[in-house]
Design brief:
This protein has 133 residues and is α/β, with parallel strands linked by helices. It has one domain: 2-Layer Sandwich (Transcription Regulator spoIIAA). It contains 5 helices and 5 strands, in the order ββαβαβααβα. The chain has helices at 39-50, 75-85, 97-102, 104-114, 125-132; strands spanning 17-21, 24-28, 56-60, 90-93, 119-122.
């Protein structure tokens, strides 16, 4: 099962796929899509997921602005809170080693998030599958 954002009148947004993995519907955002640098960016992704019965949104690290990984900006908390508020689990996928190496607070935030059910920071889709399985 796949769908594209363009098929729903969002042709200015690169392809976003809805795929079935481990019997769960995932909205996988395209790495080349618009940068999520505000709460509105998160709401745009949530809006794409809204018409589908999505179990998890997958956002590549490259879609997030640098401010997301600098916790004192508040962007990560604001963005992730939107996903939690809309009861839409999210996985941030890709290496954030350079960010965590520079911030013990981010390392703790990632660790705490990965222990929960709503926000995960994972290296790749194989880890997503493992968490869903």
């Amino acid at each position: 099962m796949t769908a594209t954002a363009g098929s729903e009148g969002l042709s200015d947004i690169p392809t976003t796929q809805v795929v079935l993995r481990n019997d769960r519907a995932l909205l996988i955002c395209d790495e080349a899509g618009p940068l999520i640098d505000s709460v509105q960016g998160a709401l745009d992704v949530i809006g794409q997921a809204w018409g589908h019965r999505i179990d998890l949104v997958v956002i590549p690290v490259g879609r997030l602005s640098d401010d997301f990984f600098i916790l004192h900006t508040g962007l990560a908390g604001d963005v992730l809170q939107k996903f939690v508020s809309y009861q839409l689990p999210v996985a941030i996928v890709g290496s954030i080693t350079s960010w965590t190496a520079a911030s013990s607070a981010l390392t703790a935030f990632v660790s705490e998030s990965n222990n929960g059910r709503h926000v995960w920071f994972l290296d790749d889709l194989d880890q997503v599958d493992a968490r869903l399985g």
